[in-house]
User: Fold these one by one.
Assistant:
Number 1:
Amino acid sequence: MSFSCFAFAFFVFLSLSSDSSSSATTTSAASDGVEVTYGTVLKLMHEKTKFRLHSHEVPYGSGSGQQSVTGFPDVDDSNSYWVVKPRPESSAKQGDPIKSGNIIRLQHMRTRKWLHSHLFSSPISGNQEVSCFGSDKESDTGDLWRLMIEGSGKTWRQDQMIRLQHVETGVYLHSHNKKYSRIAGGQQEVCGMREKRADNIWLAAEGVYLPVSESK
């Protein structure tokens, strides 16, 4: 990851929160077990294809017509950063650790919309559509995802494989090597899949990781 892309992420991260800690850790995909906490700005890497979860101000041409979500092949792209947030009614604070089973939201850093799913068909495979929806002041239950850590780990760390299960519909955040040919040429479909598969696995990759808060 180039310095310029990390610098952009850190600059925007500071603008998101006035009380961000100066000890935040900037890391690459070469993970070293850094803990993921609320307020962290990160990229999610699809474990099987190594594409990053991505969004941009391009609406779907079918389904909901909401902002599209794709898998992006290049590491150095600022539209692949997401801010990890708790559910609206949670008492969790910035810097709190995130345990397996916790319900989270992912806010697209550049457009401020939430990673979202609902009962529309995805454009390529016909699975469930995953989109970006809402704003800083607008979020609903379609934005809620349950963190599921694979293996024995109990708290989310950068080196752990995870699944994200959509709370409202039960599908898993999924991607595969089916690619768009025109508007998002070379980018691959991200959708919701009902079955647990190897293509449901993601890893926390590049980002600005907040230290764990003193009060756990």
Number 2:
Amino acid sequence: MASSQCFENPPSLSSTSGAGSVQVLGGLKTYVTGPQDSKLAILLISDVFGFEAPNLRKLADKVAADGFLVVVPDFFYGEPFDLDNPKMDRESWRKAHSTDKGYEDAKPVISALRNKGVSSIGAAGFCWGGVVVVKLARSDDIQAAVILHPGRITEDDINEVKCPTAILGAEIDNASPPEQLKHFGEILSTKLGVDNFVKIFPGVTHGWSVRYNVGDESAVKSAEEAHGDMLNWFTKYVK
């Protein structure tokens, strides 16, 4: 079950935001940015508001500037969660767009990247996307994972993680409280060969890394710090 915080501070979506372009990759419309011939790729998996969020695309462009091919697929098939739609039923939407389906839909995207000659892939996920990334981290599909203010994940999920994983959490988070995320880090620390990094950001709430107010200097600073940590993790392990 998602926390109510998962649906707070929705972005104003823009299909034309970002410096990249929208292409079809693995059967999904995907925002693509960065060098097309890069052997290193980063898969960004959005929260429930989808791949047209300007802050998310801005982050994709920022990661791409470091030489990565960055892809942000539309896992919701043109139907991101819409708080302004009075007819939207949260439960029906959740059932249609489960994180298990997101995991299955990510596989063809990863295959398409491999077919383009990509040799190493990192994945970062936000809220809903964080849960999907945990599922990917349990496979051999990716080489590194960054999980930012994830939706609800379990010890069993974490126990099966195979790749270096960073967890960036909010101090104020009902979906993934700091104590739980720290515990996940302790579990990962017992796994031989699985490096991990857990950081709790003070004074911020669930969703802060992508659903920040661009006019709030403090919020921007916290988000950019998380972005820097994410990029450092990928620079270290996606090579």
Number 3:
Amino acid sequence: MNAPEGEVKFVPKQALAPSPQLYDELVSDSMENLAKASLAFITPIAADSVINDNGCGTGAASAAVVASLSDQISGVSIKGTDINDAALKVYRQRAADGGWPAEAVNMDSNSLKYDDATFTHAIGNAMLFVLPNDGIDAIKEIHRTLKPGGKVILNSWAYVPNMPPLEAAAKATRPEGTPLPRAGLDKWSKTDFLQSVIEQGGFSKDQITILQGNVQVTTGELHRYANMLWSFIGGTTPVGWLRSDEENWDEAVEVIKRELKKTDGYTELPGGKSQLQFIANIAVATK
């Protein structure tokens, strides 16, 4: 799950309190669709596979894995690892309800407690760009715990349609020079950067393939979605929330709504929902 960049000392009264449930509502089907798009670039998972869903959150990637298995589910084992207990609680409930061959364990991606050569597959879905050191330490652990010939799927966003609207809202409602939300993430849009961090994590250059794929995401009702976006991401700057954000809250949300409608691939759906088009960098690396 994502975390703010700066220490938040003030929070506007309108901001929705972050929680795994709010996160799932905000990301909607984006994380599962990202995982599905990523899994499409590897051969079907065999019945005897042991999979690490690294940084599993509430289980989007595991759900995509299970959906891809069809009648092979009984022979597969999934280990979901994350450090967020609230997210793991949701994961465990989803696994129980869905009959997943999975367990969820509180474990740091940078220090996995599994033996060397444990997994046939690993997936880090929307994980690297929220980790320290660009996720290189986590990739080293993935490399260590993969069996020889094992594969890891890693991804990053090449295009995120909701970031320009958030930046527009920040520029419209905050003093000039105020840091923008999620500043510094542009590097992840470049395939060369993703290639570099995977190589630094121990994978050979000739064993890494990176492609791009479109990911369609369905949002909830637009005003609610814009409000969640600003609540969850608006304060993620080195200076956190500003006192003026409270009085300018409605303006910021309206800017986000207006700018979302201008993004490439935006489609209005029945019931006030909409569809956004993301583009993902998808890497498959073999040990």
